[in-house]
């Protein structure tokens, strides 16, 4: 009798996800930190390495697949959601990660992003937002602020920017989160939550382009501002921020306002309690409207709800069709209703 | 015929042909609408030129339906079936199939309507029988048919079955993604109703996404297929570039319609051949095949699947609106006897070099997500054999050449080109795709009259068959009829440096046999 026993596969480590390719982003680019966080996240997800697929469009962020030792597809500008859809529908067992940027995802690919979010495929989308076109060397992007001077807006941009979180909420995404390239721990936590969610997970990542839009997020996550300018969201916890966690967000009518605990009789009970599955989708919209610099910027999971997953519905219909009609038989179909015989 | 129909269709009637008119319709208002200043029925020339039969179809229909409970206006509408009944008498055709059809369509829901139309149909037939109003009757003998199981099939249905059959022969899952567009939408609809075959369909948000979904599926190990018409082809062309450089299998069906732009969306044309050849960025040859009849769409789809999977490349399948919605009887094939299709995929345990090639087909081998140990990256950037991004100038030239050579190598797998008639002679009529029926009929008639005319109708447009140059050299003249301004002619002249004669029609309508006969006679 054979004594063979299946050898348990060695647990995956970060190293298993690093390719031999030399990473070619600019020195100091925020992408390095995001790559590092992803490579740290993947081994902990309990997914076989061969089941990861990383798909991107075009842009600096979209070089990502070349640096991940997984299956990868660097596609064309803006169209990664469609390729990712084909991959996931063809094989629902795969863990699909789509990497995009503010130009790729919200400008040329805005339409596809809308539709993948509403369809709710079980895919993770990471949108690196640096408010500028980096690969094409410094034109303004759809998330650039009004007034931003770039090579294509020498007198300042007058395009009203799109708010990625609001866009995702508008498309009724079932999971919407935000993290930052300067906080590896928060990134890993957020990516794990995205993978755990059944449905399309949309994660906006504030990313620093050191060449064309240096320090664009410094006012939010810089050493001197982060305590007052970041609101870390925690499920079931009140929206508190500040060095002493003594400030909070209170609802006044349909407006949010900053209040200080202990002042004017304010207690923690007056502060909105974070609920990612809030019955009213306007709650997450309210969070998306906490805009810098008037408000602290919320980081973490803004919304996470359950809804039918696209590829599961498709598989379900295929099973139902097979059960009701029997496994398809082409010969029988051709010689069935409407046919006649010639002897 | 009413005045408008007479004006449009009379040029197509041969001299001495039977012309049936509804006299009731030749009133002042109708004549004016059709642009007749005088009543053409009063012109003796008409009676001399044709076998003119005048019937007051409207009045006779009303009389026949005197006892029907339908409203008078509805009774008048039954006149088309009266005319059809008369036509059946002229051609000695049985009434039963049409009676059954009417019964099935309205018998339960609107029995009065069904009965009235059946009555009108019969009245028209009996009119012919009792009055012998037309001097000639025509006997169309039963087409010589081989034994088998037949069904009526249109081009898009045949294409749907062909895609399913092809992927079954290749043991591949089929994932189709499309965006609704006339006249391709029924392919999406047809495949969506074949879920019990395991077919997956995705109705995408636009034409670009549709081909992207298909490509993602092919990357994952299914065969991705998309279908569209001309304007959609333009939108998909960037993705065709990605499919070609990543060397993934895919079938792109273009059901051609009158263009450019929205053009004549419900009319036929062969306008997309040169776009299929050249309408892309970079040096990017793509195999192109064309269907020649509604039922041939089945085999054209299988051939597209074969080339895509054996050579690992996108394939354009050209059909035409006229084929897509046109029906013909089809002797259905024995599915089990259809040849196997062998996808070029990595063998288990084989060391993987993503762009290493099969020496015969020059195809790279594919490995799919989920296959342990085969993790690799592909993408739009040029790669070297190992699959790494390469900016090496000589590598780019080498890869460009090999992508072209791979398409050329497909020609080695094609059967000899069928020549209809002798392999040498005075004139070769060379066509492609859906003009096959009209070309073959016209050439048959010329051959029957002893003329040295043969024809070839191409199914493979890229690569062109290896034996085509020899075939062309066997004829003194070459006539190329096309429903465009000479796109195949341009390719043939450029490739073989042969002078040819073009015959071109861009009216949204197919060639008639008469038009081709006249042109052939003129050329001879």
**What proportion strand of chain A?**
15-25%
Radius of gyration of chain B: 27 Å
The main sheet of chain A orders its strands as 2-1-3-4-8-7-13-9
Low-confidence stretches of chain B: none
CATH superfamily of the largest domain in chain B: Thiamin diphosphate (ThDP)-binding fold, Pyr/PP domains
Number of helices of chain B: 20
Shape of chain B: globular
Per the CATH scheme, the topology name of the largest domain in chain B is Rossmann fold
Main sheet properties of chain A: 8 strands, mixed
Task: Label the overall shape of chain A.
Answer: globular
Give average pLDDT of chain B, whole number.
95
Could you outline the blueprint of secondary structure elements for this entry?
The complex is a heterodimer of chains A (343) and B (524).
Chain A: H1 31-41, E1 52-56, E2 71-74, H2 80-90, E3 95-101, H3 102-108, H4 110-119, E4 123-129, E5 132-133, E6 139-140, H5 164-170, E7 175-180, H6 184-196, E8 201-206, H7 218-221, H8 226-229, E9 230-232, E10 240-241, E11 247-252, E12 255-260, H9 282-288, E13 297-304, H10 310-325, H11 330-334, E14 339-342
Helix pairs in contact in A: 1-6, 2-4, 3-4
Chain B: H1 3-9, E1 18-22, H2 28-34, H3 44-49, E2 51-55, H4 57-64, H5 72-77, H6 79-90, H7 96-106, H8 111-131, E3 148-154, H9 155-169, E4 174-178, H10 185-192, E5 200-203, H11 207-219, E6 223-228, H12 230-246, E7 250-256, H13 273-278, E8 288-290, H14 296-311, E9 314-320, H15 321-324, E10 327-331, E11 377-379, H16 393-409, E12 425-432, H17 436-448, E13 453-458, E14 460-462, H18 468-473, E15 475-482, H19 487-496, E16 501-504, H20 513-523
Parallel strand pairs in B: 1-2, 4-5, 4-6, 6-7, 7-9, 8-9, 12-13, 12-15, 15-16
Antiparallel strand pairs in B: 3-10, 8-14
């Amino acid at each position: 009798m054979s004594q063979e026993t299946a050898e348990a596969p060695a647990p995956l480590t970060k190293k298993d996800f690093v390719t031999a390719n030399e990473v070619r982003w600019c020195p100091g680019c925020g992408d390095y930190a995001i790559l590092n966080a992803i490579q740290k996240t993947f081994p902990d997800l309990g997914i076989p390495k061969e089941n990861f697929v990383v798909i991107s469009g075009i842009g600096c962020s979209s070089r990502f697949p070349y640096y991940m030792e997984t299956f990868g597809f660097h596609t064309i500008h803006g169209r990664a959601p469609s390729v990712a859809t084909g991959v996931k529908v063809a094989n629902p067992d795969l863990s699909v990660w789509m990497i995009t940027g503010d130009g790729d995802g919200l400008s040329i690919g805005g339409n596809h992003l809308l539709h993948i979010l509403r369809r709710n495929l079980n895919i993770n989308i990471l949108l690196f937002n640096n408010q500028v076109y980096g690969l094409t060397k410094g034109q303004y992007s759809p998330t650039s602020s009004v007034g931003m001077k770039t090579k294509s807006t020498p007198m300042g941009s007058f395009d009203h920017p799109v708010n990625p979180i609001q866009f995702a909420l508008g498309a009724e995404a079932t999971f919407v989160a935000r993290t930052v390239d300067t906080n590896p721990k928060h990134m890993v936590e957020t990516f794990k939550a995205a993978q755990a969610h059944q449905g399309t997970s949309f994660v906006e990542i504030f990313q620093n382009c050191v060449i064309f839009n240096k320090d664009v997020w410094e006012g939010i996550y810089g050493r001197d501002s982060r305590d007052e300018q970041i609101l870390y969201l925690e499920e079931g916890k009140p929206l508190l921020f500040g060095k002493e966690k003594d400030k909070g967000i209170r609802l006044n009518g349909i407006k949010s306002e900053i209040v200080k605990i202990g002042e004017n009789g304010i207690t923690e009970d007056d502060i909105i309690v974070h609920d990612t599955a809030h019955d009213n989708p306007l709650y997450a919209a309210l969070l998306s409207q906490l805009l810098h610099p008037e408000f602290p910027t919320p980081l973490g999971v803004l919304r996470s709800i359950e809804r039918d997953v696209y590829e599961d519905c498709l598989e379900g219909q295929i099973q139902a069709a097979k059960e009701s009609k029997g496994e398809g038989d082409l010969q029988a179909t051709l010689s069935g209703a409407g046919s006649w015989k010639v002897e | 015929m009413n005045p408008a129909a007479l004006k449009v269709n009379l040029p197509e009637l041969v001299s001495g042909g039977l012309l049936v008119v509804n006299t009731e319709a030749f009133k002042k208002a109708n004549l004016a609408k059709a642009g007749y200043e005088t009543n053409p029925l009063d012109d003796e020339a008409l009676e001399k030129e044709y076998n003119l039969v005048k019937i007051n179809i409207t009045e006779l229909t009303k009389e026949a339906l005197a006892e029907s409970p339908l409203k008078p206006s509805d009774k008048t509408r039954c006149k088309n079936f009266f005319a059809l009944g008369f036509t059946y008498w002229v051609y000695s055709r049985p009434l039963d199939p049409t009676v059954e059809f009417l019964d099935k369509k309205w018998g339960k829901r609107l029995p009065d309507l069904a009965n009235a139309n059946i009555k009108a149909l019969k009245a028209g037939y009996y009119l012919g029988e009792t009055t012998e109003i037309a001097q000639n009757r025509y006997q169309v003998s039963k087409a010589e048919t081989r034994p088998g199981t037949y069904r009526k099939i249109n081009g898009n249905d045949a294409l749907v079955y062909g895609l399913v059959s092809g992927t079954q022969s290749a043991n591949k899952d089929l994932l189709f993604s499309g965006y609704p567009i006339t006249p391709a939408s029924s392919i999406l609809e047809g495949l969506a109703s074949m879920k019990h075959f395991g077919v997956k369909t995705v109705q995408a948000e636009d034409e670009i996404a549709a081909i992207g979904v298909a490509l993602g599926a092919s990357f994952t190990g299914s065969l991705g297929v998309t279908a569209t018409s001309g304007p959609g082809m333009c939108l998909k062309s960037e993705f065709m570039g990605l499919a070609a450089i990543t060397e993934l299998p895919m079938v792109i069906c273009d059901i051609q319609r009158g263009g450019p732009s929205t053009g004549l969306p419900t009319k036929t044309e062969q306008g997309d051949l040169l776009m299929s050849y050249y309408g892309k960025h970079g040096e990017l040859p793509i195999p192109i095949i064309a269907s020649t009849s509604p039922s041939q769409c089945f085999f054209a789809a299988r051939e597209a699947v074969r080339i895509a999977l054996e050579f690992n490349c996108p394939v354009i399948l050209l059909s035409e609106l006229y084929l897509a919605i046109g029906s013909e009887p089809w002797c259905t094939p024995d599915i089990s006897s259809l040849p196997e299709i062998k996808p070029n995929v990595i063998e288990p345990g084989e060391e993987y070099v993503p762009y290493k090639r099969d020496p015969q087909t020059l195809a790279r081998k594919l490995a799919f997500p989920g296959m342990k140990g085969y993790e690799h990256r592909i993408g739009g950037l040029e790669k070297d054999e190992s699959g790494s991004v390469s900016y090496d100038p000589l590598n780019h030239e080498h890869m460009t050449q090999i992508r072209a050579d791979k398409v050329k190598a497909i020609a080695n797998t094609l059967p000899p080109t069928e020549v209809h008639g002798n392999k040498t002679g005075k004139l070769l009529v060379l066509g492609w795709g859906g003009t096959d029926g009209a070309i073959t009929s016209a050439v048959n008639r010329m051959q029957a009259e002893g003329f040295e005319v043969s024809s070839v109708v191409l199914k493979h447009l890229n690569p062109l068959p290896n034996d085509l140059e020899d075939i062309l050299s066997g004829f003194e003249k070459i006539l190329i009829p096309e429903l465009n301004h000479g796109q195949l002619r341009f390719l043939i002249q450029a490739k073989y440096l042969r002078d040819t004669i073009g015959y071109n029609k861009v009216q949204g309508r197919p060639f008639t046999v008469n038009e081709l006969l006249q042109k052939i006679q003129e050329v001879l």
